[in-house]
Design the sequence.
């Protein structure tokens, strides 16, 4: 049994990770910033620890008690993105300081968006991060994986999540948000010619924003989707989502498949998830 401390345990990804870790027989303590979050964690079988990403003393203490730390939380206030990235960096530095010399495990999450527009070819872990919006968060990745953690006796890893994370229903993820907006406005949208995504496995290789919009239109019985500008999309989705869905962000998961044996079940895909209304697919 591994004693795990996890941030973001009540979130979209963290709740699934917690469920799988408990099924594997591990014990979990999870950061809870409110009474409601604490109750949710208890219901999941996770022991809550009151605090947030600003209570660095709590984070350090929990890291020292744990065998492994999974840092999955991020402040998703994109009107203050720079501040959110800086907070995340301080959290990672705190975990590194607490775990130094322990040979314990530290895993953090980031996103393939650090590579921004990858063009026509899928990127991988060796692709240089270009100057621009993703640079600051990529620096936190490097802090964890190369600059400090690995050289200070910590088994560290950074996991990049694709733009579209799907599998279970959640109103905060991009596909359900797009479905809800299309149903409300009576129009399904995509930007420009429809950016290309590679969502991390062979089932989704080369899926375009236009194809997703077509699936959304069919789902909510709308006419074929229309191409709009980034500015027009921002009025419906907000500026951040519009910007993200205007870029081609392709990324290969070959290394994860080869080294970790990771594989998505046959038949699961973002288009099927969309066709089923953003619900969990079997």
Sequence:
């Amino acid at each position: 049994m591994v004693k795990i401390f996890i941030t973001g345990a009540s979130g979209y990804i963290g709740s699934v990770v917690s469920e799988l870790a408990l099924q594997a027989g591990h014990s979990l303590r999870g950061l809870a910033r409110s009474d409601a979050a604490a109750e949710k964690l208890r219901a999941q079988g996770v022991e809550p620890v009151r605090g947030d990403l600003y209570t660095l003393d709590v984070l350090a203490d929990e890291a020292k008690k744990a065998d492994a730390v999974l840092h999955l939380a991020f402040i998703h206030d994109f009107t203050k993105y720079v501040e959110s990235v800086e907070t995340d960096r301080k959290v990672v530095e705190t975990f590194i300081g607490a775990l130094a010399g322990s040979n314990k495990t530290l895993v953090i999450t980031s996103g393939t968006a650090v590579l921004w527009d990858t063009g026509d070819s899928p990127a991988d872990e060796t692709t240089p991060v270009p100057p621009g919006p993703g640079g600051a968060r990529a620096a936190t990745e490097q802090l964890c994986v190369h600059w400090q953690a690995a050289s200070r006796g910590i088994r560290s890893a950074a996991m990049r999540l694709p733009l579209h994370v799907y599998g279970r229903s959640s109103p905060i993820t991009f596909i359900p948000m797009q479905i809800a907006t299309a149903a409300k406005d009576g129009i399904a949208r995509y930007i420009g010619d429809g950016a290309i995504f590679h969502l991390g496995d062979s089932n989704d290789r080369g899926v375009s924003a236009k194809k997703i919009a077509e699936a959304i239109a069919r789902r909510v019985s709308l006419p074929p989707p229309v191409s709009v500008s980034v500015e027009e999309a921002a009025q419906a989705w907000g500026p951040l989502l519009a910007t993200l869905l205007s870029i081609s962000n392709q990324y290969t998961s070959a290394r994860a498949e080869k080294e970790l044996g990771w594989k998505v079940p046959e038949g699961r895909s973002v288009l099927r998830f969309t066709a089923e209304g953003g619900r969990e697919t079997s």
Notes: The radius of gyration is 19 Å.
